[in-house]
């Protein structure tokens, strides 16, 4: 959500943002509703002022004048009550339109239609060169008995996963390592529930537009979040915080759920695209100011890269184009890890700066040293998401005998083991 005054004064910029982000916003309708609402408010205020002035005249009026003044007060009251439904309807309509207004992208964001137009910024790490026929992650899981897709499908349906033995231990070790890295860098750990109220999705900007990705709890006003960004963004909803509390930096761990609507036939095999997963999310609530926010953006991007360095995974950083960055983003980078079996990089992290777009929806404000109240700025980035991260991890660290090499930084989380799994003879 953008400031309404900003929208009025920057119509061309808002229209252009909607165009390049492919947001179906009827900006002319928004401006029309806004004008009509301002007119209604003006009429209401004028009638209220007239009614108040009339009420002051009644005690001073003569006996003959009083009935007419009283009747006039009643008529004005009726007129005000008659305007209320129209006023409320315009306010509701305007809010719904404001929820569709996209954030203005940063000047560095490349124009584009979809992820094929994203721009690679750099590559880190060395892609492995195997002197044997490498396996994909599904074959490696099967070799070591670390997964049981058939049984879990009977219990939980398609696109579910179950890890066993060292596979489950590996997932937990990677999640724990990520949390430790973030805590060492000043992030407070949170363990959050995926159960949230619908309004939290509106506050985070996932609604309107992402309703088909969310699981709903039948008979209750609760839904399942696909990232802990959703509940954490509403922890201080409507509050006015002291500036000295900012920035608030959280490493939030939770289960996450996504229906993956619209992805039929894509990545149905293995661990890339499952309905339920575990995720560590970086979330930052800070004072306004683009320069400081961009420094924080670089910091949380660096946190994610530090985790991938610790896991010794080759990856690349790409800048998302306007058509692939989402309505609320000022700036967005993806990190993609190398997947040998596919010969390409796959997204593992997404880093976003949203300005005050979320804060205006959520009512996230703070009071500066001078007593002035501002909307905060928010940022978020994946810390780690599992089991997806296991795909590049298993494939990049496989050895000729099928066992999985454990990077040095991860060994303390796995009892000091240098390799996992059982070797295959021949």
Structural account:
Helices cover about 40% and strands about 20% of the residues. With about 425 residues, the chain is an alpha+beta fold. The chain has two domains: about 5-100, Helix Hairpins (Orthogonal Bundle); about 115-420, BirA Bifunctional Protein, domain 2 (2-Layer Sandwich), CATH 3.30.930. The strands form four sheets. It has an eight-stranded mixed beta sheet with strand order 1-9-10-11-14-8-7-2. Strand 12 and strand 13 form a beta hairpin. The radius of gyration is 27 Å and the shape is elongated. The model has no long low-confidence stretch (mean pLDDT about 95).
Record keyword descriptors for this entry.
12 helices; BirA Bifunctional Protein, domain 2; single chain; alpha+beta; 16 strands; 2 domains; Helix Hairpins; eight-stranded mixed β-sheet; 426 residues; three-stranded antiparallel β-sheet
